[in-house]
Write a structure and sequence with these properties.
The protein is α+β, with helices and mostly antiparallel strands. The chain has two domains: about 80 residues, Alpha-Beta Plaits (2-Layer Sandwich), CATH 3.30.70; about 45 residues, no CATH class. About 55% of the residues lie in helices and about 15% in strands. It contains seven helices and three strands, in the order βαββαααααα. Strands 1-3-2 form a three-stranded antiparallel sheet, covered by helices on one side. α1 packs across α2. It starts with a strand and ends with a helix.
């Protein structure tokens, strides 16, 4: 099988961009990366199938390298916007809040408390929320049954 060699200048394309490009071609080609000298990445492309025009693949690889380079640059340029959107989605909008992460300690302490311990009179709280007083109804039912 024939092998095509491409040499990439790392002053133009980063290793991240080269790896991203190589990943696109992994399903049909074997990709071998090497660094023969500082500032250069040597890429060897070997087809997994016969009768493939490797000169055409070199052009496709270079085009995909430009695409990967652009994607990485857009990703970096939009980092602050992405972080802001995620922050708002997770924490909500609060113009006066600092950028510090909110503490979850109080929530954890509140979860460990029994509901009855958090209300001054649980029977009244139940009566207000449900409209009935369970203990009074239970006692009235016992008296009607003659127990």
């Amino acid at each position: 099988m024939e092998t095509k060699t491409i040499t990439i200048d790392t002053n133009i394309y980063s290793l991240r961009e080269v790896l991203s490009t190589a990943y696109v071609f992994l399903d049909k080609y074997y990709i071998f990366l090497n660094q023969p000298e500082e500032g250069k990445i040597k890429i060897e492309i070997k087809s997994k199938e016969n009768d493939i025009d490797l000169d055409k693949i070199e052009g496709e690889f270079n085009n995909e390298l430009i695409n990967a380079s652009l994607r990485v640059r857009v990703f970096e340029e939009n980092r602050n916007v992405r972080e802001m959107i995620v922050n708002i989605a997770l924490n909500g909008v609060d113009k006066n809040a600092s950028r510090e992460r909110p503490s979850c300690r109080k929530d954890a302490e509140d979860i460990s408390k029994r509901w009855e311990d958090t209300v001054s009179n649980p029977h009244i709280a139940v009566e207000k929320s449900k409209g009935i007083n369970f203990s009074a109804n239970f006692m009235n039912n016992e008296k009607k049954d003659g127990n």
